[in-house]
Task: structure prediction
Amino acid sequence: SSGINAEYGGKSKDAPEAVNSRLFVGNLPATGVQLTRFAEVFAQYGTVLDASLHTRFGFIQFDCAEVARRASEEMNGSLFEGSRIDVNVASERRKRRSPSEILKENTVKKIPRKQV
Result:
């Protein structure tokens, strides 16, 4: 899903200092989470450059890794709108493969006929 995005702050989320400053927030309530409220809760730790919400999870992008680390340590396991959330520094984005790439990997190539 594409999720909902909002831009905050004046820095680019792609800036070199933004490496390791993206948090994954899991176990969000299934419905009713507002993007501005979600971002504001994390903004108490520092400048939020980007926030996105998906079904039961979201991402927060800070302007520096140190702020993200501190927010992760303090927010992990805390209650957010009635749900105990999981907050961790996000891992590298996985490159999505197209269906044709997956099909090519799982297709058997020409196999020589066995002589009996």
Observations:
- The radius of gyration is 20 Å.
- The longest helix spans residues 65-75.
- Residues 1-9 have pLDDT under 50 and may be disordered.
